[in-house]
Write a structure and sequence with these properties.
Keywords: Signal. The chain is an alpha+beta fold. It has helices at residues 133-159, 162-167, 172-196, 213-235, 241-264, 280-288; strands at 205-206, 291-293, 309-311, 377-382, 388-389, 395-396, 406-411, 414-419, 421-424, 427-431, 436-438, 441-442, 447-453, 471-478. The chain has one domain (133-478).
């Protein structure tokens, strides 16, 4: 195959700029350097090396937006021909028998420099398609996440002007990065759709809660957290390891997007050592509230929609002192809604040019007053089941949990419980826990997940789904 060298040019010739204020020297740009090269074009169509077509145009205008006002023709999650059990009991793992006391190889090697074991390492040709109902429904959920991100990133660049971004402390280059992230989502959606085939869910319309650039960024922080965590939660459980391999490579980009939005909001870009994974029903509960309508006959999902859990005193990242956050200081009543940004100027941290108090966009910020802290009393309210939510209002919130008794906190590797003090039919209080993952790493940090449960069932990152039958309501907590 012929190798091609590409032509790279320094931008512009020597510029004779006007002297800067204060007598600074004029900047001289280097002259254009010619590099040996040949003219070349990227292949397209059916040519060798051509890229695969996108499932949706990366430059398509945003979809229509607003709440759904029609009458659903179908209600409830997708159902199989039968359900084996109301819960899945815990049981020992019969395959957990490998033990290596000295690090030496214990079995013959399949080939030189290759240890025995592993999945998909025996020469079987990979097939990049889903292999079970679990795979299909998980990837279908992932496509919904990619589609809303594709639309949301385009939407922000379209409805907020360059001046709006500047007033929020951002630049035209930041706005260009946002548009580039939309292109990434077109690729992610195309990848997942290709692995499902013709019945893959299609682009929907959405109902967003924000009114300002700060609120828009805040919403992106929350949405990319449940999107990233939702995919981490099922990746290792997929029957198709080939599908999991490709999705991991997309998910690595989602994690970077999460950090960018946190930096734009003046938060620490990665205040955790480990990204948490959540069950699909947690992901669908949080995501579906913002999907207004989907095309007719769009593939339906099997996952549960839990009732919403509302943190009454949710910390507001726009405040100099988050402790001064008023009750329900959010823009709406959905669990992922951002905090209000239009607070009094003397209470806002957006334009405070003082280290430790400034929350304008930055690579990293140190906050003298954290958003929350261990021992903070947290006031909670939750909805009753039976609410119509999601695409076309065609999904219904439900729970099989008994009486609320605990609050489950999920961040990083740990699921930590605190007792719930029930104060009314749908309200209660608890105290933020003080658990650590490792020394110097508080278990609860960043955008965390919070649930009211009827028991303190012991679960770990790999079997967190076993808690679903005990979840009374589900929400988010802005811990840092």
């Amino acid at each position: 195959m012929v190798g091609y060298r590409y032509l790279f040019l320094a931008i512009a010739s020597v510029a004779a700029g006007a002297p800067a204020s204060g007598g600074a020297e004029t900047l001289s740009l280097p002259s254009v350097t010619q590099i040996p090269a040949i003219e070349t074009q990227a292949p397209n169509g059916t040519a060798s090396g051509a890229g695969a077509p996108l499932v949706t145009s990366a430059t398509t205008v945003i979809t229509t937006h607003g709440p759904y006002s029609g009458t659903p023709t179908t209600t409830g999650a997708e159902q199989g021909p039968a359900t084996i059990s109301a819960t899945i009991p815990s049981q020992p793992n019969p395959w957990a028998t490998y033990y290596n006391p000295n690090g030496k190889l214990t079995q013959p090697q399949p080939m030189p420099y290759m240890p025995a074991g592993g999945v998909g390492t025996n020469g079987t040709l990979p097939v990049y398609m889903v292999q079970s109902d679990y795979d299909y429904q998980s990837i279908a959920l992932g496509i919904h996440q990619e589609f809303i991100e594709l639309d949301l990133f385009h939407y922000g660049a379209q409805v907020f002007s360059e001046q709006d971004f500047i007033e929020a402390g951002l630049t035209a280059e930041d706005r260009a990065l946002l548009q580039y992230m939309a292109l990434q989502e077109a690729g992610h959606a195309s990848l997942l759709a290709d692995m499902l085939g013709e019945s893959a869910p299609k682009q929907c319309t959405y109902n967003y809660p924000f009114k300002t650039v700060r609120e828009y960024i805040d919403f992106n922080v929350r949405l990319t957290r449940w999107g990233e965590s939702g995919n981490w939660g099922f990746l290792s459980h997929l029957d198709s390891k080939e599908v999991a391999t490709l999705l991991v490579q997309a998910e690595a980009i989602e994690a970077r997007q999460q950090s960018v939005f946190r930096q734009w909001l003046g938060l620490h870009p990665m205040p955790i050592w480990f990204a948490p994974g959540i069950p699909q029903s947690w992901h669908w509960t949080l995501l579906s509230q913002y999907i207004s309508s989907c095309p007719e006959n769009n593939t339906r999902l099997v996952w549960q929609n839990f009732p919403s859990l509302h943190v009454v005193n949710q910390p507001n990242a726009n405040r100099i002192s988050p402790n001064n956050t008023a009750d329900f200081e959010v823009v709406g009543n959905r669990t992922g809604d951002p905090s209000k940004s239009n607070i009094a100027e003397d209470q806002s941290c957006v334009h405070v040019n003082v280290t430790g108090y400034d929350c304008g966009p930055a690579i990293s910020r140190v906050r003298n007053q954290p958003l929350s802290f261990p021992g903070r009393e947290v006031f909670l309210e939750w909805d009753d089941p039976g609410k119509a939510v999601g695409p076309n209002n065609s999904y219904i919130t439900s729970t099989t949990a008994g009486q609320p008794a605990f609050v489950a906190w999920l961040s990083q590797l740990n699921l930590t419980y605190t007792p719930l003090n029930v104060t009314g039919p749908n309200s209660g209080t608890t105290f933020q826990p003080a658990a650590n993952v490792f020394d110097a790493d508080p278990a609860l940090n960043g955008t965390a997940f919070i649930a009211v449960t009827d028991t303190d069932l012991y679960v770990t990152p790999y079997n967190l789904t076993l808690l679903n039958p005990h979840v009374r309501a589900l929400g988010l907590y802005y811990s840092g």
